[in-house]
TrEMBL record:
<feature type="compositionally biased region" description="Basic and acidic residues">
    <location>
        <begin position="10"/>
        <end position="21"/>
    </location>
</feature>
<protein>
    <recommendedName>
        <fullName>Pyridoxamine 5'-phosphate oxidase putative domain-containing protein</fullName>
    </recommendedName>
</protein>
<feature type="region of interest" description="Disordered">
    <location>
        <begin position="1"/>
        <end position="21"/>
    </location>
</feature>
<dbReference type="InterPro" id="IPR012349">
    <property type="entry name" value="Split_barrel_FMN-bd"/>
</dbReference>
Length: 163
């Protein structure tokens, strides 16, 4: 590489290589995992999403509030990425197509249920460190926590019935 190469030119574009580590199936992650959903319009937008549900080897379910910009973006451009850094050394990016599977969730009419059909699972674990607990948060609103628990129970039930 030329001595005058910029940092971007020297960067290892490991996802460009056929030997980039990928997983065949989604691993298990703790229920309380916070993930990051990336949608485009065409610029990328990233938002935290609470407690994504592993719904199979290559399927993820999550709930999004009806007025989220990300929900509108994934309807227009269904190709998304979901970054999961979870306890037990889960470090992956699930890429695939998202679709709304329920406009209104039972007992949560202001939330839509979204399914991501995963095409590629980039394995981002590294030998230099492990993900211990992932993204952490402190619950400030017990009613919202109870509502989230209800939505996740519904998604989990749907996932169990699909498998």
């Amino acid at each position: 590489m030329a001595a005058g190469a910029s940092p971007a030119q020297r960067q290892d574009h490991s996802t460009d290589h056929a030997d980039h580590p990928v997983l065949d199936v989604l691993p298990q992650w703790p229920r309380e995992t916070i993930a990051v959903l990336v949608t485009t319009d065409p610029a990328p937008h990233a938002i935290p999403v609470s407690w994504p549900v592993r719904a199979g080897d290559r399927r993820i379910l999550l709930s999004l509030k009806f007025d989220r910009g990300s929900l509108a973006r994934l309807r227009e451009r269904p190709q998304v990425a979901l970054l999961i850094l979870g306890g037990g050394n889960v470090a992956l990016c699930a890429r695939g197509a998202a679709k709304v599977i329920a406009e209104q969730m039972p007992d949560a009419a202001d939330y839509a249920a979204v399914q991501i059909d995963v095409d590629t699972i980039d394995d981002h674990r590294q030998s230099a460190f492990e993900v211990d607990k992932g993204i952490q948060r402190t619950v400030l609103d017990s009613a919202e926590l109870q509502a989230l628990e209800g939505r996740v129970a519904t998604l989990r039930s749907w996932a169990d019935n699909q498998n």
